[in-house]
Amino acid sequence: MKKALVLGASGATGQLLVAMLLKKGVDVVAIVRNENSLNKIDSSHPGLQIVEVNISEMTESDLAQHVKECEVVLSCLGHNLTFKGMFGHPRRLVTDAIKKVANTIASMNIDKKIKIILMNTSGNSNRDIPEKPPYSQRFVISLLRLLLPPHVDNEKAADFLRIEIGQTNNKIEWTAVRPDGLINEDQVSQYDIYSSPVRNVIFDAGKTSRINVADFMSDLVVRPELWRKWKGRMPVIYNHA
Ligand SMILES: NC(=O)c1ccc[n+]([C@@H]2O[C@H](COP(=O)([O-])OP(=O)(O)OC[C@H]3O[C@@H](n4cnc5c(N)ncnc54)[C@H](OP(=O)(O)O)[C@@H]3O)[C@@H](O)[C@H]2O)c1
């Protein structure tokens, strides 16, 4: 039985991801600040373990106790869309959490590779390729970088995986999934995956339903051929137009 640790499990995408992993036969350790926020999940599911702790305050040794049982760590963390969430602390919620997970894995005596699957954003470029977004998009994104700390956090989290973990780490493999404009839908629908954005993220944004993100992220856990295709890359996901 596979086991996954999910950060940001209480979020709009995180809850869908937890439900989808359980449905696909993967046991889940859900890290949440408040157990009651898991209101869309059957919290009595036998495959689900809920750990009530703020990831920012969790020690690496506590985290290691959970990570060592898992093959994969998934993050759907994101700043709450409130003034405090966007401009207050922690400014580097996502980056710091990913670094903590990576440091924890690095300190563990393991002979397997652990996967990290990060929910990122199409507004972030994969500078490994490199990508060349349209000038209008680059101009607005550089303003967002100055004005919106959460955007910088998303960029830095993926940069950490790309640059610090890279492609040849002996304990960690990763992928950063980049949805376009998130919407809510009840059912999984057809979606397309690209290695880079195919639309202008600012002036021609596409739609990506959270449930499709959850489906793709959970498929990366259960479908080895899909993982082999996308590991070390930053797939972009759009609902099929
Ligand atoms: N909006 C878009 O169109 C769009 C597009 C592409 C990518 N994204 C990215 O997608 C990601 C997830 O989106 P979403 O809508 O599913 O997010 P969401 O519903 O806002 O969920 C955010 C998660 O992060 C947790 N969190 C927030 N602040 C925290 C803190 N200070 N300490 C610990 N945990 C904290 C929340 O926990 P609580 O429940 O305890 O608050 C929740 O589990 C974000 O990184 C976002 O940038 C968004």
Notable characteristics:
two-stranded parallel sheet, globular, 20% strand, alpha/beta, eight-stranded mixed sheet, 37% helix, Rossmann fold, 241 residues
Break the fold down into its secondary structure elements and pairings:
Elements: E1 3-7, H1 12-23, E2 27-32, E3 48-52, H2 60-67, E4 72-75, H3 83-87, H4 93-107, E5 114-119, H5 135-147, H6 149-165, E6 172-179, E7 181-183, E8 191-194, E9 207-209, H7 210-222, H8 224-230, E10 236-239
Question: What do these coordinates show?
Answer:
By secondary structure, the protein is of the alpha/beta class. The chain has a single domain, classed as NAD(P)-binding Rossmann-like Domain (Rossmann fold, 3-Layer(aba) Sandwich). The protein has 8 helices and 10 strands. The chain has helices at 12-23, 60-67, 83-87, 93-107, 135-147, 149-165, 210-222, 224-230, and strands at 3-7, 27-32, 48-52, 72-75, 114-119, 172-179, 181-183, 191-194, 207-209, 236-239. Strand 1, helix 1 and strand 2 (27-32) form a beta-alpha-beta unit. The radius of gyration is 17 Å and the shape is globular. The mean pLDDT is 95. NADP nicotinamide-adenine-dinucleotide phosphate (NAP) binds next to helix 1, helix 4, helix 6 and strand 7.
